[in-house]
């Protein structure tokens, strides 16, 4: 079925056109084309994404470890349930420290016929905050997400919840939305092992505005806010309880496995901007994408007044209580200069604080990544990436240059990618 549309196009291009035999064959094939291109509940779109790699050394807060490995191998099914609803299921197979794991990344239903531009999505799905988060990892132009995503969203944030979105009837694209999630992967450490978390812990609000500049350029600007009811540390770990601290403190699991955020806070603010250019509007053969995002995670602890005074007396400026936020940003440029080759350059910086004994210590991570990719088709990519990282306060401080080789292969029909 995959090659039938191509075969039909070739038949249509043949001369002379008034060929009775070709006309009969085309009339017989057209219903099959329509059935193949419009997945229904009895004929869902099924796809598998294969992700494999070799990495020369470990990197901070990435799930890809040194050596050969598998990334997120994805199995997805999607279809229109009826004229009112659409559904999608996505599972991810991961391999970590000698063990295989299966995660349900998406399992949601979405309305398709609500009036006045409203849409409701419910179940498990990717949050629409920021620019990259609502996109699957295999669509990225780099082997790993920017450090801001790895630190604050566990790579990419998906959760159980509900979303209401609205597209305004304006000449310019304008999307507004709000979400409510369980928020289990964004909970702060349970320092006392007796903490009661809110069952609905995360609330988000976002807006995205975009438009075209002539026929060759387009842009989008977004603002997002996330309130995490369970995101604050309430006490500091005691010095003698090293095992408890290592197990629960943010930032200790620097591979970021399990898609849990390494750093949390009560308020997260995100600003993002994307610009795309393609000569004559033909994105297939040549295009440029420029993007940037800024994250600020505020109020990551709440301590009693006497604790502030005691720790300030003992540690002075080392406690650094006045700077109650983490922040990170990145800028990225990806240029596809031929139909089969693209190159990308990204630079990002993370400034965070890690709990150490009874105080916090600053951390800094700077990353520069150069990516060169060969695309034999829309379904296959082979990528070479050189990452240079310099950091303060993290492990792997001496692993300055890391080389990664990656392949991403798609089998079957896959839904369209985001802007």
TrEMBL record:
<dbReference type="InterPro" id="IPR023614">
    <property type="entry name" value="Porin_dom_sf"/>
</dbReference>
<feature type="compositionally biased region" description="Basic and acidic residues">
    <location>
        <begin position="239"/>
        <end position="257"/>
    </location>
</feature>
<keyword id="KW-0732">Signal</keyword>
<protein>
    <recommendedName>
        <fullName>Beta-barrel porin-2, OmpL-like. bbp2</fullName>
    </recommendedName>
</protein>
<feature type="signal peptide">
    <location>
        <begin position="1"/>
        <end position="36"/>
    </location>
</feature>
<feature type="region of interest" description="Disordered">
    <location>
        <begin position="239"/>
        <end position="258"/>
    </location>
</feature>
């Amino acid at each position: 079925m995959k090659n039938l549309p191509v075969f039909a196009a070739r038949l249509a291009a043949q001369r002379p056109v008034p060929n009775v035999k070709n006309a009969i064959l085309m009339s017989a094939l057209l219903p099959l084309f329509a059935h193949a291109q419009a997945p229904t509940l009895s004929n869902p779109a099924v796809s598998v994404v294969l992700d494999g790699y070799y990495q020369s050394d470990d990197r901070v807060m990435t799930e890809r470890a040194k050596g050969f490995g598998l990334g997120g191998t994805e199995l997805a099914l999607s279809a229109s349930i009826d004229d009112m609803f659409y559904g999608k299921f996505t599972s991810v197979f991961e391999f970590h420290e000698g063990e295989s794991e299966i995660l349900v990344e998406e399992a949601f239903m979405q309305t398709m016929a609500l009036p006045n531009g409203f849409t409701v999505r419910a179940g498990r799905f990717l949050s629409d905050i920021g620019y990259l988060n609502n996109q699957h990892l295999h669509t990225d132009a780099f082997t790993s997400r920017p450090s801001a995503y790895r630190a604050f969203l566990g790579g990419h944030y998906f959760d159980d919840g509900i979303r209401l979105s609205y597209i305004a009837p304006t000449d310019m694209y304008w999307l507004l939305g709000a979400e409510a999630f369980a928020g289990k992967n964004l909970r702060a450490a349970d320092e006392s092992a007796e903490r009661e978390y809110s069952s609905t812990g995360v609330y988000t609000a976002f807006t995205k505005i975009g438009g075209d500049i002539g026929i060759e350029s387009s842009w989008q600007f977004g603002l997002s806010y996330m309130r995490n009811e369970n995101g604050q540390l309430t006490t500091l770990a005691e010095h003698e309880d090293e095992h408890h601290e290592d197990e629960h403190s943010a930032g200790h699991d620097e591979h970021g496995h399990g898609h849990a955020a390494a750093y949390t806070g009560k308020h997260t603010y995100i600003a993002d901007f994307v610009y795309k250019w393609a000569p004559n509007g033909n994105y297939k053969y040549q295009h440029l994408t420029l993007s940037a995002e800024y994250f600020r995670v505020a109020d990551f602890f709440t301590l009693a007044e006497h604790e502030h005074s005691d720790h300030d007396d003992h540690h002075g400026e080392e406690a650094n209580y006045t700077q109650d936020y983490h922040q990170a940003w990145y800028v990225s440029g990806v240029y596809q200069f031929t139909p089969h080759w693209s190159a990308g350059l990204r630079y990002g910086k993370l400034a965070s604080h890690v709990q150490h004994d009874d105080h916090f210590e600053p951390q800094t991570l700077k990353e520069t990544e150069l990516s060169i990719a060969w695309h034999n088709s829309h379904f296959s990519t082979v990528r070479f990436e050189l990452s240079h990282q310099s950091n303060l306060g993290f492990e792997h401080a001496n692993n300055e240059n890391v080389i990664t080789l990656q392949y991403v292969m798609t089998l079957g029909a896959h839904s369209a990618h985001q802007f």
